[in-house]
């Protein structure tokens, strides 16, 4: 159990614009000292508005935000123990790298004799030692992002806020910078809060993730917990790829509930924490990588579906296979390309069985 104290407490925070548009709706959670925390969700879910309220650029309509135990209601952005890295980097083009990083120290009156040492330390942290005399137009996109990070870290904030900081980078550089941000967070030991709509980015970087939808936080959990045990249909569908089926609870068999699903028949599942009543509509779900493709009919101990291959998408290390049954329902399967071969293991039109272990099936009552 994580015993670190909270550095940020968000208490029943709501934000409305123009009195009618609710961007953030009754959010309550805590973010701990020294953790890498992600706000994840689709565009328009309220994650950036929540980050801007932590920064002080927006004021909550209701509720309060505490940073290190202090109520931030009347504390302006420049007086908060935080700094922010924007999506656009906001690097000054007319200044060299050193002056960009030093800017915040100069305007807050840090003595000149301290500035050089702190700027050089910050540049070393982001692996830009020796770049101080270069102008931003002499740098790559990844290097400009590092300048923005150094400028934020040089002021030694308690919390660093990152608003979609990698969205302007190409895929390979973005992946490299994800690892760099994790390394940097470990090195400085302060709390990082990142806003992203990219689930892979959040899963690979964060200690905990808050998944948001329509202004509400649907689940806060560690990446593996979110992925393997989502608490609702939205989280299950948003995090990674998921096969979702609608069903109905028809009874109880020992410690398991019986779910009737068209095309799958009766599926016996552990109820878990979900409140399910007989006759109630439920969803069941399975990840594509948990599904196995077989030519022969699987045993009765597995959940099985017969269908025809309707699509195969090749991605090098893995192929996504889509199998459609007679009712038109499609299920996706991740098939690892383990052997070195250019021949397709399955082809469009093949009749196959796909099956999975009941223990890999999620029961979603909401």
In summary, what is this structure?
The chain is α+β, with helices and mostly antiparallel strands and 366 residues long. The protein has 8 helices and 20 strands.
Q: Would you mind describing this structure in some detail?
A:
It is built from 8 helices and 20 strands. The chain is of the alpha+beta class. It folds into 2 domains: 232 residues, Rossmann fold (3-Layer(aba) Sandwich), CATH 3.40.50.300; 124 residues, OB fold (Dihydrolipoamide Acetyltransferase, E2P) (Beta Barrel), CATH 2.40.50. The protein has a 6-stranded mixed beta sheet with strand order 6-7-8-3-9-10, sandwiched between helices. A 5-stranded antiparallel beta sheet has the order 13-12-11-14-20. The longest helix has 18 residues.
CATH superfamily of the largest domain: P-loop containing nucleotide triphosphate hydrolases
Find the CATH topology of the largest domain: Rossmann fold
Proportion of strand residues: 35-45%
What would CATH call the class of the largest domain?
Alpha Beta
- Secondary-structure class: alpha+beta
Task: Give the total of beta strands.
Answer: 20
Put simply, the count of helices is 8
Distance between the termini: 28 Å
Major beta sheet summary: 6 strands, mixed
Average pLDDT works out at 87
Rounded to the nearest angstrom, the radius of gyration is 25 Å
Strand and helix order = EEEHEEEHHHEHEHEEHHEEEEEEEEEE
Low-confidence stretches: none
Number of domains: 2
- The 3D shape can be described as globular
CATH architecture heading of the largest domain:
3-Layer(aba) Sandwich
The helix fraction, in percent, is: 10-25%
**Strand arrangement, major sheet:** 6-7-8-3-9-10
